[in-house]
Amino acid sequence: MKLRVITGTLAGGLFVAVMAVGSVPFTLLSAAIAVICYMELAALKKLPLLSPGVLMGAFCVAGIVLGTLLPSEDAFGLLFIKLLAALVLLFVGTTVFSKNRFHFEQAAYLLMSVFYIGFSYHLLVHVRLSSFSLAFFVLVIIWAADSGAYFIGRRWGRHKLAPKISPKKTKEGAVGALFTALIAAVLFQFVLRDPIFPSWWLLLLVTLLIATFGQLGDLGESALKRYYGVKDSGNILPGHGGLLDRFDSLIFVLPILYLIGVIN
């Protein structure tokens, strides 16, 4: 527990500090984290990390995140389509020249990983470049929900939430996540004073969406790890596991916020 708290505090503090700087430093950090998360996904499937297919995907993930620095969304959209199209063709070509040692199912897994990780971290950088307050708000709500689920679940959890996917998660913890997220949102707004959203109702609604879908993203990664028989996605963060273990909620939440128009 102590190691988990210390690691989380130091890593979270460093991440927020670079986020506050923004611009190129935060974009580079986000691209690096995105590539590591992608590599952890590849490792879950036991794909060689230095194989051509995995490396091509890593290059595309970095390109998608760094593309945030392009002067317009139109320019990024064109880059995004070209990168994915090129990756599909390269993957198919690799299946031929590798004589199916790299096969279509692996290519599909990596392509989905590139899109899922790359697009989410692109959105993270995009939000930060548009509004530090909104980006920080999303992080605070996810961290508050995660902490609430963990501590309330440990203290009062009795009923399993998804025992076949994540045996330690409880329904009480899930409710606790929503409760602590709402408290964090109210405190955040009082401290900030300058409203992020035009009304309190919208603030609370977005908070509940972030806390709910954040837990779904966490469960989604747990399901993937259970399917491949892995406890943690990596060991880069002592007491926490891999970067994918720490950012799974954020990776899932950002596209949701984009789809409902919170992120433009």
TrEMBL record:
InterPro entries: PC_trans
Record's keyword annotation contains Transmembrane: yes
Topological relation to the membrane, as annotated: Multi-pass membrane protein
UniProt-listed GO biological process terms: CDP-diacylglycerol biosynthetic process
Key words, A-Z: Cell membrane, Lipid biosynthesis, Lipid metabolism, Membrane, Nucleotidyltransferase, Phospholipid biosynthesis, Phospholipid metabolism, Transferase, Transmembrane, Transmembrane helix
Descriptive protein name: Phosphatidate cytidylyltransferase
Pathway(s): Phospholipid metabolism; CDP-diacylglycerol biosynthesis; CDP-diacylglycerol from sn-glycerol 3-phosphate: step 3/3; Lipid metabolism
Taxonomic classification: Bacteria, Bacillati, Bacillota, Bacilli, Bacillales
GO MF, one annotated term: phosphatidate cytidylyltransferase activity
Transmembrane segments: 12-37, 49-70, 76-97, 109-127, 133-152, 173-192, 198-216
EC code: 2.7.7.41
Organism: Sporolactobacillus putidus
